[in-house]
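#struct-pred

JT: dropping the chains for the assembly here, can someone run the whole complex?
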Amino acid sequence: TQLLEQSPQFLSIQEGENLTVYCNSSSVFSSLQWYRQEPGEGPVLLVTVVTGGEVKKLKRLTFQFGDARKDSSLHITAAQPGDTGLYLCAGASGTASKLTFGTGTRLQVTL
Amino acid sequence: DSGVTQTPKHLITATGQRVTLRCSPRSGDLSVYWYQQSLDQGLQFLIQYYNGEERAKGNILERFSAQQFPDLHSELNLSSLELGDSALYFCASSVVPSSGRADEQFFGPGTRLTVL
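RK: done, full complex below.
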């Protein structure tokens, strides 16, 4: 069974701070996605990374896929209250189309 | 708005009952996925359909079943409901099935099922 562990589970920070969320597994994934989910809504895709070592930037968010494609990180610079939500990583492997979701990181950004 | 619709938004029922959740994928998407999200289990993949046929199966209980119709909408049937089935059920859709990389999956707003 593939497991994706995220850390930290909960994070409460003030506006303007930087943070990093980690997504780790002992399994290799062909690609990895990051989603953000707000209360009462479905997850929304933020990014897909495919190549080991790949770095993608989305405004203040920087996503990195580990060289071995077993782990990933999400770094947020100068967090804002609008970044509040549940961040989920999800990996796909082989020809399987199902995603294995991580345990989630709940982020709260306060003024 | 992802373009994926799910009905109903909320469902309250009793143990032992049977319910049907409905999902309409984004226009043009052939693949539909069902997920269960509970507080202690996170987001769990249940099953995927592609163009009417079952494509992949996850941790779906035998009491649960799904199907995708010719118009591509999908239904998830949950029977002999137990208290532990209370959860959010999400449907997602994508254009094509994976060929070694993850599709971009677009999630619906979910159905919150409460079993009393």
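JT: nice. Chain B has a mean pLDDT of 91. Chain B touches chain A through 30 residues (CB under 8 Å).
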